[in-house]
Specification:
mainly alpha; 10 helices; 62% helix; 0% strand; globular
Length: 130
């Protein structure tokens, strides 16, 4: 089931967005978790382009504010075995953000190892990027 998408206040404060604009971004990102879980790379690319053109936000700007059942977008892709969408997300994120700890304090590589997902093709793309 689609969880409510949260955009951090830091992003809103940084970009100087009003409450209405923040709600619009939240609406624009409302089904991004479903898109990732369905492994719909084309639709994910369209969603990312729309958010970038409408709100001038890149993936790195809203990645940490999106939670899919308590997991980040890349973790959701790994758990859903959404190879196409997950690979796109890994390639679009800056290397420094990929190696940074996420909300739970674990890096993606540590989380992958902890959950035994090293054989997942997305994990291979992640390791190649880092």
């Amino acid at each position: 089931m689609l969880k409510i998408v949260k955009i951090t206040l830091v992003v809103a404060a940084t970009l100087g967005m009003s409450a209405t604009a923040q709600a619009d971004v939240t609406e624009a990102l409302a089904n991004i978790c479903t898109i990732v879980e369905a492994d719909d790379k084309g639709e994910l690319r369209k969603k990312m382009r729309a958010v970038e053109s409408d709100y001038r936000l890149k993936l790195k700007d809203y990645y940490s504010g999106v939670s899919c059942g308590g997991n980040s977008l890349i973790r959701t892709a790994l758990l859903s075995n959404a190879v196409e969408a997950g690979s796109l997300l890994v390639k679009k994120m800056p290397k420094s953000d990929l190696s940074a700890p996420e909300a739970d304090g674990k890096t993606l590589q540590a989380w992958v190892a902890e959950n035994g997902l090293q054989d997942n093709p997305i994990a291979a793309v992640l390791n190649d990027r880092l």
